[in-house]
């Protein structure tokens, strides 16, 4: 029982620390990191997940990184991996494609700015 309480207090302290100090991530991203095991990626790390060399295809939308490797028939640019490994928030203007990715692709990380 005390171990669980200690764990919760530690987690709360991390959230408070991340949300009050000077840092590069906002409060929502800090909570997302604290609540899950989602990994924070830099743009350089994200670029490695471009579907080449047996790597999965990841894209970022609004700082959330999605694995689009298993999504079929989204868009020719996405499926030929020309946009994989990139932040497509402002590149793809088709909100339908973004909605499909957000609803169907698993979240694998967050993009750090």
Walk me through the topology.
Blueprint: H1 2-20, H2 27-35, E1 39-41, H3 43-47, E2 58-61, E3 64-67, H4 76-79, E4 86-87, H5 95-104, E5 107-111
Helix pairs in contact: 1-2
Description:
Helix content is 42%, strand content 16%. Helix 1 (2-20) runs antiparallel to helix 2 (27-35). The termini are far apart. The longest helix is centred in the first third of the chain and has 19 residues, at 2-20. The protein is an alpha/beta fold. The protein has 2 domains: 1-36; 38-113, Roll (Flavocytochrome B2, Chain A, domain 1). A 5-stranded mixed β-sheet has the order 1-5-3-2-4. It has helices spanning 2-20, 27-35, 43-47, 76-79, 95-104; strands at residues 39-41, 58-61, 64-67, 86-87, 107-111. The mean pLDDT is 79. It contains 5 helices and 5 strands, in the order ααβαββαβαβ.
Attribute tags:
5 helices, five-stranded mixed β-sheet, alpha/beta, 113 residues, 42% helix, Flavocytochrome B2, Chain A, domain 1, 2 domains
């Amino acid at each position: 029982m005390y171990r669980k309480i200690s764990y919760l207090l530690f987690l709360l302290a991390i959230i408070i620390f991340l949300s009050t100090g000077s840092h590069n991530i906002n409060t929502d991203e800090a909570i997302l990191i604290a609540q899950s095991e989602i990994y924070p990626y830099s743009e350089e790390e994200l670029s490695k997940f471009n579907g080449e060399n047996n790597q999965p295809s990841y894209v970022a939308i609004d700082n959330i990184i999605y694995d689009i490797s298993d999504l079929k028939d989204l868009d020719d640019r996405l499926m030929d991996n020309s946009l994989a490994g990139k932040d497509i928030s402002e590149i793809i203007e088709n909100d339908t494609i973004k909605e499909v990715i957000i609803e169907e692709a698993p979240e694998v990380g967050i993009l750090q700015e």
